[in-house]
Amino acid sequence: MLVDLSSVTIQFFVVYFLLINIVTWFVFWFDKYQSRNGQRRVSEMKLWVLALVGGSVGALFGMSMFRHKTKKLSFQAGIALILALQVWLIYFFTNNK
Q1: What is the spatial distance between Cα 74 and Cα 72, in angstroms, rounded to a whole number?
Q2: CB half-sphere exposure, 3, CA atoms < 13 A
Q3: Residue 2 placed within a domain
Q4: The pTM is what?
Q5: What is the tally of structural domains in the chain?
Q6: Residue 28 and residue 41: Cα distance in Å, rounded?
Q7: Tell me: the pLDDT tens digits for 61-97?
Q8: 19 — phi, psi (to 5°)?
Q9: pLDDT confidence of residue 7
Q10: Considering the domain boundaries, does residue 86 fall inside one?
Q11: φ, ψ (nearest 5 deg) of residue 38
Q12: What is the DSSP letter of 35?
């Protein structure tokens, strides 16, 4: 194993990923809400950063549930690529000997 993860570290990462994905999902909802009401929007850069720091699953759920940013193929592909990279990194750091 490349990194020896204690149970406390694993619990921290599980809680972190749950929280960041909930926050990201909420921000996608809020941006869609703002869009529908003609209000100031959340910047795409903030949406990208949330996905990059671990919220890619929340971003995909938010995009799907609220039909938000789904017409932008480049945005969808980017979020999917970030998720794939995150899954690979988790696999690499937990299973590489």
Answers
A1: 5
A2: 11
A3: no
A4: 0.82
A5: 1
A6: 10
A7: 999 898 877 777 788 889 999 999 999 998 887 786 5
A8: -65, -45
A9: 74
A10: yes
A11: 65, 25
A12: H
